[in-house]
Amino acid sequence: MSDLPAPSPPVTLETKPYWDAAAQGRLVLPRCEACETVIWYPRSFCPACGSTAVSWIDAAGTGSVYSHTVVRKGQGAYREAGPYVVAYVELDEGPRVMTNVVGCDPDNVEIGMRVEVVFDPTDKGTALPRFRPAAAG
Amino acid sequence: MSLRGRAFIAGAFEHPRREIPDRTIPQIHAEVAVGALADAGLSLTDVDGYFCAGDAPGLGGMSMAEYLGLRVRHIDSTETGGSSYVVHVGHAAAAIAAGKCSVALITLAGNPRSGGFEGGGRAFASAPEGGFETVWGPTIVANYALAARRHMHEFGTTSAQLAEIKVAAASHAQHNPNAFLRDPVTIEEVLESPMIADPLHRLDCCVITDGGGALVVVSPEVARDLDRTCVKVLGAGEAVKHTDNGRIDLTHTGAVWSGPIAFEEAGVTPGDVDYVSIYDSFTITVLETIEDLGFCDKGKGGTFVADGGLQSPHGRLPFNTDGGGLCNNHPANRGGMTKVIEAVRQLRGEAHPAVQVPDCQVALAHGTGGSLATRMGSATVILGTEDA
Known about the structure:
The complex is a heterodimer. Chain A has one helix and seven strands.
């Protein structure tokens, strides 16, 4: 867990399984049953082949930082958050996902840094997957 | 069918003000519409095609056609953010070539400076990707900073090189009496300005201004009968770059696709271009776009822009001689319109004498709408003098 704000995401028919899993502390990803492409962002449609046969797989919850920035002053829910990291993390399953890197000094995040998922509960019953530096080994 | 020579820009008008608290947005659309038509020597009754984008209030093109009293037989409200108006030039030329209209009016207006910054929240609320981006607090600057950081990592680009882009824009803006920011700046001043989202500083960011602009695109037959110097549309290309199913590459823009289409249609190469208007929401936007359009190799943009490379008239590639979005104007948070307008000024020989490119024959205007780190509309138009 981090002390960043955790605004609740809009949940739709297409994304409910993702957010339900997050509420249970699991990171899941949609995968196309026809061409086996791992899909991002979550949707009930495979943009690689057009199939609507999409199922969910458990992700390892690990990846590496593809790019990052320190937002010095946020807006909306993040207005009073202080400096925080917005990053793209490349998951080990392939997709590059936008997220926050938490659990370290924002100025110490580096491209290529190994990270692992953590979950911050929202006040609406789900949780936001964020990433922290991976434990050594 | 090539569009080369099938349409001409006959009128261009940029609203002179940068803060307009005393006008409604439709009023500003009307002011720039009349301004561009007067520039061409035409009137509202001549217009038979109308183009506008997401800044047009109400039902967009329908509401504005009614407000302006237009009777049109062609309408196009393609919305690709700040690149929309560059897209519209290509679409207007295509419509004219197809005989769908002969006098096309394109307008833009907005007041984010006096009326409150519009971040596009209304549209994003129902966007399918919304829940997977906004919850992490990415500001607009952050959505460009992510690209800048990755470009630096892969190619060794530096903050000082990005600062050169702002320095060049400011050196041009000092000659523009209407520019929002007119003071020259140094590389050191850019680097010492407050960090907004690493590695982008305050002076890596464009201005927020009220204002607007309009263009009139006409058929060759209409152009022939006008007294005004017209600018020939040589080629146009457009593209949408998005997150590509989670495989986004932050080191390039959609210009890698829109540029070659425009160059092929125009029958010219980057080496033939005398002047460029490059969308400059942020310094990194310019750097990646210049590489993607083929003015230098991928990753070499930092070296290309260094040592005054973008300064007019003596740099390698004179750019944004009005001061661009970084210094002059970014009306409605949408900079595509002013990019085309300054390219028209250069080809007419009507830029400020201190920044006019001598014997400017071929110009390129490029728009980027959306953000480098997620999805963007990219539009490239290549323009030439009347007899180019």
